[in-house]
Amino acid sequence: MSRTTKAVEELTPQEAAEELAALAGEIAEHDRRYHGEDAPTISDAEYDALRLRNAAIEAAFPELLRADSPSQAVGAAPSGVFAQVRHAKPMLSLDNVFSDDDVRDFVASVRRFLAWPSEQELAFTAEPKIDGLSMSLRYEQRRLTTAATRGDGTTGENVTANIRTIAEIPDELPKDAPDIVEVRGEVYMRRDDFLALNERMAVEIGRVFANPRNFAAGSLRQKDPEATRARPLRFFAYAWGETSEALAETQYEAVQRLGRWGFRINDHMAICGSVDEMVERYRAIEAERASLPYDIDGVVYKVDRLDLQERLGFRSRSPRWATAHKFAAEKATTILRGIDIQVGRTGALTPVARLEPVTVGGVVVTNATLHNEDYIRGIGNDGQPIREGRDIRVGDTVIVQRAGDVIPQILDIDPEKRPAGAEAYVFPDRCPACGSHAVREEGEAVRRCTGGLICPAQAVERIRHFVSRNAMDIEGLGEKQIEFFFNHEDPALQIRSPADIFTLKDRQGSSLTKLENVDGFGAVSVRKLFAAIDDRRSVPLSRFLFALGIRHIGETNAKRIARHYLSFDALRAGASEAMMPQGKGDPGNAQWQELVGINGIGSVVAEALVEFFAEEHNRQAVDALLKEVTPSDEEPVGDVSSPVAGKTVVFTGGLERMSRDEAKAMAERLGAKVAGSVSKKTDLVVAGPGAGSKLKQATDLGIEVIDEDAWFERVGQ
Predict the structure, then answer these.
(1) For position 404, what pLDDT does the model report?
(2) Which one of the listed residues 6, 89, 129, 302 is annotated catalytic?
(3) Are 476 and 527 contacting, i.e. CB atoms less than 8 angstroms apart?
């Protein structure tokens, strides 16, 4: 996996794609540790910086959005310790901002989406961002029926029995509460309670928690509710999910109503009428941060009017009407003990700094990505010196920052503390995994292994991606198991390609080494592994496409493509028959135009898909896989009962009653497919003033064309 030190605007598409791949894997692992195990290995600031870099690259290169992009995922899958609960409405995360200018950009984006004039009043709420565990409390007929963690945003864990032990959570709501209401907020622990309990835990079980958030999460996941009762958990209410009736007209009024029902709400919440007021409130809360009895890591801004929140809607993992303004980063000094080279799924060689463990903000940091060989040498991508030309050597005392472009990041070294005899690091020109030449193409910051399919590091990474949670999601095939099967000498136990996974059980009959007799497996675990594999012989088309590991096709792009073609046969035929433009003025054939016309799919993604199916070895691998796995047709999304459900719609020209973004979001909510270009498969064109070539093309093809008013009439809005 690869990172660069370039500013985002200087990245090439290839560099951006490589860095997005690296960030996707790293963030997914941190999500699993944080949400699934309550045991994060990096600080919040480090994690936020990873997401910030990822978001910045995606904004600059929207066509490179990956199916496994962190921007499309929320939390992590439920752990399996508790029963699962499917949320009536998803519990989404918030996007983050880190500067005053970012806040201005957020407000500007809200106004732009709503087409809201700058002179027209637009109020926001501002409140502390509690560092705890997100919780949804469902009340039916005013009685608490279910309490669930966020989980992956769609499905959480049922912790109702444990939640009932928290005194600040009422078991019954007053008579003015709706028949159905989901109250959402944060379970947390005060710092003084945390310190006292941690001291006791150190004596009783020899284990301590890194911070109050981890302790609160661990306490809530106790199998015995009485163990939870013994720990002083608390709850702040600040939001809601499904309700049978509206709570209020504004965010502020709704939260105050939650307070009247007996929930604890934050008294630092305020209404702000401008960006300056929002930033001023942020500064005031930041100044009080140390004196607050609970941990916070920023300030949350939300559009106050609920009708505007409804119009703004959601992205895949976050609302457009809210964001979190995170607090500043921290720095620490430690010693660089070594530099390792990791080989990613695409062959990129990435240097990783191994650090003397250092605690930064309560989290132990042990490694940092060193980006590339130029960064180690003290040279920027423009050929000019960075860090005043100082290189990085093993043994150096280094300054590590918790936030920045890429985290953990080594900012600089202390030249006065460099040990005598420290030698300049020589970046390898051969792959450490297979010995093949590692070459760096002109204009590239990345050195890449030329071993291709013979490189075990790349092969293992490809299989690891194939079985990962957002792809085929095969339990029991973790990193160690994949490496075991890949490197095993007995062909009957080898997994060298995705198809090998599904033939493993049958090949056991000819194996000299029975898997259940291998140390680390056993009869029970082998049965579970084979059952998990068999359970994935039919998967949704979008998951199957993402699992293939095609460059630039992450989870979101896989869903976009799958929802357009609906079946694998149609997808493969479309990609195989597509002919890319051969020069200036050549638009490509109809299949190519159809592919690039999918909303959100640009030429870079389309080219990657076409080239994948053009390669004979890829077709052979897919054919072998299809003998074992059947991709199920993709389900249409949105309101399937609406009059435009399943229709392909193109918006062109100016829109007067809503912005273009709002129009697309509305169409997708109603189950329509929004395309960026007109083709024979287009069902409807909504044309506003100034419509040009798309309108003419629709007319020539005999496609129905309506104006904006007719669109609203048709969809019943």
Answers:
(1) 37
(2) 129
(3) no
Rounded CA gap, 717 and 713, in Å?
A: 6
Task: Give me the CATH code for the 8-73+329-417 domain, please.
Answer: 2.40.50.140
26, 199, 306, 534 from 313: Cα distances, Å: 28, 45, 11, 38
Distance CA 257, CA 280 (A): 26
**pTM higher than 0.70, yes or no?**
no
Please enumerate in sequence order all residues whose Cβ is within 8 A of that of 682, keeping only pairs 6 or more positions apart, or say none: 648, 649, 650, 675, 698, 701, 703
Phi, psi of 541 (to 5 degrees): -55, -40
Pairwise CA distance, residues 47 & 31, whole Å: 9
Spatial contact of 538 and 514, defined as CB atoms under 8 Å apart: no
Tokens of 608: 């990657």
* Helix/strand/coil for 190: coil
* Cα–Cα distance for residue pair 129/213, rounded to 1 Å: 13
CA-to-CA separations, 426 to 339, 340, 415, in angstroms, rounded: 10, 12, 19
Query: What's domain 84-320's superfamily in CATH?
Result: DNA ligase/mRNA capping enzyme (3.30.470.30)
Which DSSP category does 32 fall into?
I
> Tens of pLDDT along 222-243?
777 787 787 889 999 999 999 9
**CB of 79 closer than 8 Å to CB of 217:** no
CA gap 580, 597 in Å, rounded: 13
Range list for CATH 2.40.50.140 in the chain: 8-73+329-417
- Asked if 177 and 139 touch (Cβ cutoff 8 Å), the reply is yes
Contact 180, 139 (CB under 8 A): yes
Determine the topology of domain 540-632 in CATH: DNA polymerase; domain 1 (1.10.150)
| Predicted local distance difference test score (pLDDT) of residue 406 | 39
How confident is the model at residue 7, as a pLDDT? 73
> CA nearest 561: which of 538, 578, 583, 580?
578
Q: Is 89 a catalytic site residue? A: no
CATH architecture of 648-715: 3-Layer(aba) Sandwich (3.40)
d(CA 284, CA 268): 10
Angle between helices 44-60 and 13-31 (to 10 degrees): 150
Both tokens of 54, joined, read 């990822």
**Residues of the chain with confidence (pLDDT) below 70:** 1-6, 32-41, 43-45, 62-63, 67, 71-81, 205-210, 316, 329-331, 345, 359-364, 402-407, 451-454, 512, 636-640, 717
Residue 180 contacts by C-beta under 8 Å, 6 or more apart in sequence? 138, 139, 140, 242, 243, 244
Cα-based angle 704, 707, 711 (whole degrees, multiple of 5): 85
- CATH 3.40.50.10190 segments of the chain: 648-715
